[in-house]
Specification:
Length: 486
Amino acid sequence: MDAPLWSMLADDAAVLDDADIVRRIAAWSTALSTLRDQVVALLADNSPHWLIADRALRSAGATVLPLPTFFTDAQCRYAIEAAGAAHMLVDDRLRAGSLGFAVPERIDAGPLYLCRSNIPRRALPPCTAKITFTSGTTGQPKGVCLTGETLQAVSGSLAALARELGIRRHLCMLPLAVLLENVAGADTAALTGAECVVPPLAAVGVTGSSQFDPRVALSAIVRWRPDSLILLPQMLTALVAVAEAGVPVPRGLKLVAVGGARVAPGLIEKARALGFPACEGYGLSEAGSVVALNRPDDAPGAVGRVLPHLSVTLSARKEILVHGLRQAAYLGAPPLPDGPLHTGDLGHFDAQGRLHVTGRLKHQLITSFGRNVSPEWPESELLAEPAIGQVAVFGEARPTLSAVIVARPGVDDAQLDHAVRRSNERLPDYARIGVHVRAAQPFSASNGLATDNGRVRRDAVWAHYGDRIAALYAALDGAPTSTTEI
C-alpha cells in the first residue's frame, strides 16, 4: 500500500502489526474489488476490522456509507435507500436480515459479513468517497457527500499537530461511524504512522448514542496508555466528576480534543488540573469534520486556530463562513453553489487569531431588555456543573432566561438549585438563569426530546415544558424559582 498506515491496530482481542495491516487491507481490497463505483454501507461496532474494511473499500474505489450502530432500523433503511447502497458490511447477521439484506459470506475469516440487497443505485456527486449522515434536529438524517480530497486535507492538517505534540498512540472513544473519530482520530493516526487502539465501544464505557460510564472509560485509558483521545463535552464532564471524586487519572495524555458542542472554559480548566489536557475544537460534517482546534497550551474560551487548509471569515451578522475544501453536495440535492460554507454559527476572532463560537444564528435570544444571548453560552456553564446532565435554555422576549434541566441521578432539588446559582455566578446578569424546571426524565430519542446522537430538540422541549416555564415567569418576583415535574 502506498498510503500511510497505522504502525499497530489493537482491540481487546488482538494486536495487528504493520505487516498484518498491510496484508489484510490488500486481501480485503481484492475481495471487494467488484464493488468499485458502488456505495457500500458499513454497520459495525468499533474494531480494527472496521478500519481495515473502510480502508479496503476506499482502495477498491467504492463509496463508504458509515452507519452508527445507534441509528434505528428506520434511520438505517432511510440512509441505505437514499444512498443506493446495495451492499453492506455488518457484524450483526440478525440486524442485516431486519434491514432486508442477505448474508452470503464472511470476509477474510473476520467478524464482518458482506451482505447484498436489491436496492437501486443512486446518482452521486463525482469523486464521492464517503457519505456521512447527520442526525440533525428534525426529520430524517441528512447525507453529506465528501470527497477523498476533503477528508485527506482535514486529517493532513491534524497530522501536523499530532507530530508536533509527539502523539504516537490514539484510543478511539467515539463510534468510528461518526466522522470526527473516523477522520480526526483514526485517519490522522494513520497519516502519522501512529498506533490506533479500537476496542468495542462498551469497553470504553459507551452505550448507544448518549450513555457513558466514565469509570469504564478510565480503566481503558489506564490499560492502553494513549497519547490522544477525542471526547464529547458530556464525556469530559463525567470523567472530571469521577476524577474529582478520587478516581486516579493516568498521566501521559498529550491531547484530549473535545468537540460536538460548546464547552465551558471552567470545565477545560478543571480537566487540565486533573491531568486531562483538554482542548476545545470546532467543526461540522459539511467541512469534513474539524475546522479549528486549540492546543494544550492555549487558554480556554476559544475553539482554536483555523486549520491551515481552510480559512474563515465573518459575515455582517457575525456568521462563521468557511472557505476551502468542503462537501460536494447533500445527498439527492443539486451541487452547492460556489462560495463559502454558511455554518449558521455565530463567532468572532480574538487578538491571537483564535476563533470563538458564541452560538447559533437561529437560536439567538433577545431578552425583553434588548440583550442578545446565545443559549449555548449559559448552557455550557450549567453543563460544567457535575449535578447537571442535560439542559435547554429559553428566554425570548422575557426579562430573564429560563432553563429545563435534567439532573444527574441522586441529585436532589437543593443540590440542583445550588448548581444553578454557581453557574450564574460565572455569567453576567443578563445571561443568568432566573427560573428553571427540573425535567422528569432525560432528553432522549425515545421520548422525542433529543436526536439519536444526543442533541437536544429545543422545540420539542419547549412544547413539553413551556407551560410550566410560563407559569414561573408569571409568578416571578425577582428571585430564582424552580419546580420539579411529577
